[in-house]
């Protein structure tokens, strides 16, 4: 860490050069830098690292505790946040360190008490984003004396427990959250066993929607009790709704979609990955009268007839994720092309669409590939480097590319020529993922040249994901030698998603 700070200091000193070509700070050490420069350097560190820097000297301690460094704070140590050992310590932090500068705060269950919330309301008037994590709760604190709550919140994320009922707490805060524009309710989808268990409605959505009339973005993620009636409830009161996400809410069937679009005239983004959509409900929607631009129907059981009916009637779709759907076949893609409704398309995700042929994919990309900024054609064993070599010269605007599948193939992937083609044709590339099994990747002693070309040509590349193996180590070492330490990542801990293309992406992020 000290080496990092010294390097930043050197680079900062080189920004100022006198007429004789010498920097007036040529002999300056980091200790001689002005406080405002050190403050700027510290702003690049995590709060855990800032706390470590505070132990070096009295001056560094004073800078480390400057409230301007504490605008966005997580107190959940399991999510790379700080650990606060007691409520008394937190109360001191709120008063002495956070204050009016605090904009964003994450709190775990043990720190969510009426005393803490009162202190935040009194001492942090500019707090606009808050995450309350109740997921690990076995019981709630007593909120009977809760009389104050941060009143300027625009973003609220509540991580729900499976069994702890939230209504006692929510009843106390309804009067303070009518200014909310973004609401996240995060369920326990990723932690739930497959066995059937009794499902509890741990938060009253019908009362919540009445208290939040100004919502633009609603994200209901992986909640096992959310169904079509809850979507209907929000649509009845949130006339400004622009984005609705119900990913992995498997009780949603689409029965109230028609009413949703009739009421929510501003709705542009609908994300329904992993839901139980039924074709007959989806086909009743007046898609041609909507202004929908972004749609995710990944891992649903929609029929080919339904997909054709929907895609040929949505007039200006910019973002489509429709992977893992058996009904998405050549006839669907052909009908969509012939309708002319792909003219606005910028992002296409067809992951694991095994019923699409190489021929129809090449025809589609030939016609619309020049405008695509994200192209996901992964999870299909029949799509190899040969198809990608054919379509890469067309994908000039690509920012996100995902290719390959995890299963072992009977053919080999010549990755050197693939890297050459990507570097030559996709200068705007920001994110790239190759999912092929390392045993299928073939590369030569001249691979370094191809990797160099990719690194030099694709200067905006910030994330390159590869399966663990010899080629991964080779690429990682190449980028690290060029001081691009965080670009190359492993598929075990990273995935490239087209969601970066969604207009409300920043509002949809949650931990």
Automatic annotation (TrEMBL):
UniProt record, GO biological process: positive regulation of protein ubiquitination
Gene3D superfamilies assigned: Ribonuclease Inhibitor (3.80.10.10)
Span of domain F-box: 27-73
Cross-referenced PANTHER family: F-BOX INVOLVED IN POLYQ PATHOGENESIS, ISOFORM A, F-BOX ONLY PROTEIN 33
Protein name: F-box domain-containing protein
Organism for this UniProt entry: Chironomus riparius
């Amino acid at each position: 860490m000290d080496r990092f700070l010294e390097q930043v200091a050197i680079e900062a000193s080189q920004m100022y050069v006198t007429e004789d070509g010498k920097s007036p700070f040529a002999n300056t050490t980091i200790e001689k830098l002005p406080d405002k420069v050190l403050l700027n350097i510290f702003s690049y560190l995590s709060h855990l690292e800032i706390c470590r820097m505070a132990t070096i000297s009295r001056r560094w301690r004073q800078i480390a505790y400057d409230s301007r460094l504490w605008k966005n704070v997580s107190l959940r140590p399991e999510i790379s946040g700080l650990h606060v050992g007691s409520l008394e310590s937190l109360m001191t932090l709120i008063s002495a360190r956070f204050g009016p500068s605090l904009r964003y705060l994450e709190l775990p269950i043990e720190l969510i008490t009426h005393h803490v919330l009162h202190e935040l309301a009194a001492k942090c008037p500019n707090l606009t984003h808050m995450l309350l994590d109740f997921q690990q709760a076995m019981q709630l604190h007593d909120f009977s004396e809760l009389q104050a709550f941060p009143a300027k919140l625009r973003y609220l994320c509540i991580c729900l427990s499976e069994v702890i009922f939230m209504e006692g707490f929510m009843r106390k805060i309804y009067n303070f959250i009518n200014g909310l524009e973004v609401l996240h309710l995060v369920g326990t989808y990723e932690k739930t066993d497959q066995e059937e268990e009794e499902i509890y409605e741990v938060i009253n959505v019908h009362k919540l929607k009445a208290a939040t009339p100004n919502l633009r973005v609603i994200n209901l993620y992986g909640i096992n009790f959310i169904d079509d009636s809850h979507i209907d409830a929000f649509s009845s009161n949130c006339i400004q709704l622009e984005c609705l996400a119900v990913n992995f809410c498997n009780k949603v069937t689409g029965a109230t979609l028609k009413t949703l679009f009739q009421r929510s005239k501003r709705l542009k983004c609908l994300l329904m990955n992993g839901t139980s959509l039924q074709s007959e409900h989806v086909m009743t929607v007046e898609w041609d009268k909507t202004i929908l631009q972004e749609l995710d129907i990944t891992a649903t059981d929609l029929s080919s007839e339904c997909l054709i009916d929907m895609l040929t009637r949505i007039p200006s779709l910019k973002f489509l994720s429709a992977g893992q759907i058996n009904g998405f076949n050549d006839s669907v893609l052909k009908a969509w092309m012939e309708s002319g409704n792909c003219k606005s398309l910028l992002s296409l995700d067809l992951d694991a669409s095994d019923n699409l042929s190489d021929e129809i994919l090449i025809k589609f990309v030939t016609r619309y590939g020049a405008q695509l900024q994200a192209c996901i054609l992964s999870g299909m064993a029949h799509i190899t480097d040969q198809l990608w070599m054919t379509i890469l010269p067309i994908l000039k605007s690509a920012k996100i590319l995902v290719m390959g599948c995890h299963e072992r193939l009977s053919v080999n992937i010549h990755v050197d020529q693939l890297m050459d083609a990507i570097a030559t044709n996709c200068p705007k590339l920001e994110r790239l993922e190759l999912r092929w099994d390392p045993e299928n990747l073939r590369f030569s002693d001249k691979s370094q040249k191809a990797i160099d070309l990719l690194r030099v040509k694709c200067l905006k590349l910030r994330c390159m994901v590869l399966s663990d193996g010899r080629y991964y180590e080779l690429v990682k070492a190449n980028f690290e030698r060029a001081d691009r330490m965080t670009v190359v990542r492993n598929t075990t801990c990273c995935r490239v998603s087209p969601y970066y293309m969604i207009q409300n992406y920043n509002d949809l992020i949650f931990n």
